[in-house]
Design brief:
about 90 residues; mainly alpha; globular
């Protein structure tokens, strides 16, 4: 089980901590996207599994004979429309 959701930080430095977590999560998701695109390519060359810990851990699940499920959490609030669309694009 893997979660890419960020946690909450303490009162002092909470915004900075959340920003660092968000950057790290986005970087890992970007590497995950690169691996998924490479695996889906017909002319598959190099698959960058070693780009980050996330893709290394998921190597067998993504490229092996494992069954993998992606759960995309979305929010129906109008204020979250852009985030929801981004999540749905990634999940599709």
């Amino acid at each position: 089980l893997l979660s890419t959701a960020g946690g909450s930080a303490g009162a002092k430095g909470a915004a900075e901590q959340l920003e660092r977590e968000a950057r790290a999560i986005n970087k890992s998701l970007s590497f995950l996207e690169q691996v998924v695109v490479a695996l889906g390519s017909r002319s598959r060359g190099h698959v960058p599994h070693r780009s980050c810990k996330l893709t290394s851990v998921l190597r067998d699940s993504l490229g092996g004979n494992c069954k993998t499920v992606l759960v995309a959490n979305i929010w129906t609030a109008d204020s979250q429309t852009e985030e929801t669309l981004s999540t749905l694009r990634f999940a599709s």
